[in-house]
Amino acid sequence: MCGFTREADLDGALALGVDAVGFVLYPPSPRAVTVARAAELARRVPPFVTRVGLFVNEDAATVEQAAREAALDLLQFHGDESAEYCERFGLPWIKAVRVRPETDLLECADRFRGARALLLDAWSDAWGGSGKRFDWSLIPPSLPMPLILSGGLDPDNVAEAVRNIRPSAVDVSSGVESAKGIKDVARVAAFISGVEHGEARSAG
After folding, report:
1. Spatial CA neighbour of 52 closest among 35, 69, 78, 70
2. Which listed residue (2, 108, 154, 171) is catalytic?
3. Residues 165-181: tens digit of each pLDDT
4. Is position 2 annotated as part of the catalytic site?
5. What is the pLDDT of residues 36-77, one digit of tens each?
6. Which end of the chain is more exposed for a tag (fewer CB within 10 A), N or C?
7. What is the 3-state composition of the chain as percent helix, strand, coil, each rounded to the nearest 5?
8. Which of 9, 86, 108, 121 is catalytic?
9. CA–CA separation, 105 vs 86, rounded Å?
10. Active site residue 108
11. What sign for the dihedral angle of Cα 176, 178, 182, 184?
12. pTM of the model
């Protein structure tokens, strides 16, 4: 669950059992927080919940500062970063790919094979989350690395996504908000319930 800006939203999501929380360190985003603010929020995160920093074409010094001050466990890169750049920080990382029909996801998986996963999002001209769903049929069945599904997920469609795509994880931000950067605890609870329902149907 990404895009936290307020303590109450973060505490509510943690109480409901999210596995990872993301802080957007990309100033143009409406969900952006400063490094100092990310560090304040990250201190509220208990052990065994992953603290993720989201970056877009950021300078290395800022990534290093954020990783250190917010004690990030995982780096998430949404820009034009090379695999070599993503590797340089010595932390686990994932690479976001904006998907459209001409996107070669097998080539992306090869190019970013050092990533812990590919995060697949809908194509948009702007960096970061689009809040839109992409055509899931574009995902090759033989993708040779873990997949995090993003893009337009919400409480109404996440069970279908989990059941049909069987991703390693799902990522959501706008789908559980009442306004940009403001999470709705009822939607968070419904989203998590949808994930669990989709997993149960897949297992069955």
Report:
1. 70
2. 2
3. 999 999 999 999 999 99
4. yes
5. 999 999 999 999 999 999 999 999 999 999 999 999 999 999
6. C
7. 35, 20, 45
8. 121
9. 18
10. no
11. negative
12. 0.94
